[in-house]
């Protein structure tokens, strides 16, 4: 780690000052927007009345994660051009979720979680399998975000990894605790503006200070494989990341909770717009990694390449910008994940399995305790830093890709049956995990999604069901 400390562009005192300033801002805003979150619906779903501007901002900011700003450069350094372009295909998941969001709000106007849908559509066995997959993914994403915070702060300031990770997790837990989804969506709006301005500035600096010709010449001389558009692993990653992104969004309660929180008629346009605006961000973030040969930079760990290159290009002031941009990206995703995962645990485990008769006051208290527990659990699992961001992230791809077809088919095909959906999730996860270990991280989601798709299609054809869509509306209205 000594190389990382020596490469830091900011002194620790400056790093702590930035952390303190933004921590106070986010905590204040969490309290300010959370004042109106009195009822459970207000805390969990922002009163189900989020408009277009906030809807686009929260979808986009949540999807611009630490994985976008840090793992995209890592993948560009490892897989070249297809690494950063392939990551941009994560936008497809947002855009494909647009019609699903409209369908979800139509079928379940008073729903709370993605688990609500799976339970009512497929029954308890599929519901429990889905919860295991969803919660495993949520913890994997939480850990990757916490890790990214520690890596970022250490790379730019030399502050020890454990300290930086602890601060970022603590701040996000605190303001999510204060304001619930209202605080999350409000801060997301501001964080989106910061992210867009900061990434635009870094792109301009890379082009003006190095230029495309120098970057291309240096890469062609020392790392020509990064320019190879026929690199097999990179091509597989391209399709794998497309399906991984779709699986992440289709199943995750982060996106379902927004479908329930958006005002009627907003979901489709908000997700479609956010997806289109998101496309260039990982390409810009990944592009900076191709400057490594031209800069002669020694990168001790692949997942640290983004902040190191940006800091070298732009000096101390630029390092401050990088710090603020990635800190905002981390916060915008961490708070969303904390709120949505807490909703899932509260509604589907605490209320669904442990305390079906719990009243609203009890559920409010339980929601806050769950947020605290999630933050503590993520912190404990982040401490060792056992793997890189990309490896951790794509390990979960084997799980989430298996849910794409059960979710999509369940929303549109009344003949898809519960046994087929359950089998699709189990077989897709199993094959995806085997592919991850036997071949590589870049095929786990691809193979898992393919097996899940075939399973859903074949079982629907062999044993067609006849689901009544009104069941979803009636059951969620009764709970509400």
Summarize the structure.
The chain is an all-alpha fold and 480 residues long. The protein has 24 helices and no strands.
Notes on the structure:
The model is unreliable at 1-6 (pLDDT under 50). 58% of the residues are buried. This protein is mostly helical. It is built from 24 helices and no strands. The chain is globular, with a radius of gyration of 22 Å. The chain starts with a helix and ends with a helix. Helix content is 80%, strand content 0%.
What's the story with the biggest beta sheet? none
Number of helices, where a helix is a run of at least 4 consecutive DSSP H or I residues:
24
> How far is the first residue's CA from the last residue's CA?
52 Å
Fraction of residues in β-strands: under 5%
Q: What is the helix/strand order?
A: HHHHHHHHHHHHHHHHHHHHHHHH
**Nearest-angstrom radius of gyration?**
22 Å
State the shape: globular
Strand and helix map with partners:
Blueprint: H1 2-6, H2 12-34, H3 40-45, H4 52-63, H5 66-79, H6 81-88, H7 90-107, H8 114-122, H9 124-157, H10 161-209, H11 212-222, H12 232-251, H13 253-261, H14 267-278, H15 280-287, H16 292-295, H17 305-354, H18 360-382, H19 389-395, H20 397-400, H21 404-412, H22 418-438, H23 444-462, H24 470-479
Helix pairs in contact: 2-10, 4-10, 4-14, 4-17, 5-6, 5-15, 5-17, 6-12, 6-15, 7-12, 7-13, 7-14, 8-9, 8-24, 9-10, 9-17, 9-18, 9-19, 9-22, 10-15, 10-17, 10-18, 12-23, 13-17, 17-18, 21-22, 21-23, 22-23
């Amino acid at each position: 780690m000594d190389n990382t400390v020596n490469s830091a562009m900011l002194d620790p005192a400056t790093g702590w000052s930035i952390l303190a300033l933004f921590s106070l801002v986010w905590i204040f805003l969490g309290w300010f927007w959370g004042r109106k979150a009195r009822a459970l619906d207000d805390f969990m779903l922002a009163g189900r009345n989020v408009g277009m501007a906030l809807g686009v901002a929260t979808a986009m900011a949540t999807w611009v994660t630490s994985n976008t700003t840090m793992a995209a450069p890592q993948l560009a350094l490892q897989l070249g051009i297809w690494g950063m372009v392939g990551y941009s295909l994560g936008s497809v998941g947002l855009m494909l979720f647009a019609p699903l969001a409209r369908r979800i709000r139509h079928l379940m106007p008073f729903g709370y979680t993605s688990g609500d849908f799976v339970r009512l559509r497929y029954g308890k066995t599929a519901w429990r399998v889905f919860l295991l997959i969803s919660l495993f993914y949520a913890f994997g994403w939480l850990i990757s975000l916490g890790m990214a915070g520690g890596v970022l702060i250490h790379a730019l300031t030399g502050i020890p990894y454990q300290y930086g990770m602890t601060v970022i997790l603590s701040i996000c837990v605190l303001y999510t605790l204060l304001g619930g989804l209202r605080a999350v969506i409000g801060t997301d709006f501001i964080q989106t503006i910061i992210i867009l301005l900061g990434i635009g500035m870094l792109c301009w600096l890379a082009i003006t200070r190095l230029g495309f010709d120098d970057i291309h010449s240096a890469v062609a001389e020392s790392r020509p494989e990064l320019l190879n558009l026929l690199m097999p692993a990179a091509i597989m990653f391209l399709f794998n990341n497309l399906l991984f992104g779709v699986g992440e969004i289709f199943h995750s309660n982060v996106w379902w909770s927004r479908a329930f929180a958006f005002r009627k008629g907003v979901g489709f346009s908000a997700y479609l717009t956010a997806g289109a605006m998101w496309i260039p961000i990982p390409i810009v973030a990944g592009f900076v990694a191709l400057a490594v040969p031209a800069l002669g930079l020694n990168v001790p760990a692949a997942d640290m390449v983004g902040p190191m290159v940006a800091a070298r290009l732009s000096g101390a002031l630029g390092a401050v910008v990088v710090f603020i941009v990635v800190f905002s990206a981390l916060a915008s995703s961490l708070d969303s994940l904390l709120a949505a995962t807490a909703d899932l645990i509260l509604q589907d485990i605490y209320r669904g399995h442990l305390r079906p008769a719990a009243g609203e006051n009890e559920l409010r208290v339980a929601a806050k305790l769950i947020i605290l527990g999630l933050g503590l659990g993520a912190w404990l699992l982040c401490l060792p830093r056992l793997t890189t961001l990309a490896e951790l992230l794509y390990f979960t791809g084997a799980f989430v890709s298996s849910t794409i077809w059960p979710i999509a088919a369940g929303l549109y095909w009344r003949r898809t049956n519960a046994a087929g959906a359950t089998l699709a999730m189990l077989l897709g996860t199993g094959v995806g995990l085997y592919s991850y270990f036997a071949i590589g991280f870049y095929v786990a989601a691809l193979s898992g999604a393919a097996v899940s798709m075939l399973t859903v299609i074949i079982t629907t054809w062999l044993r067609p069901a006849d689901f009544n869509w009104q069941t979803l509306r009636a059951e969620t209205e009764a709970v509400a």
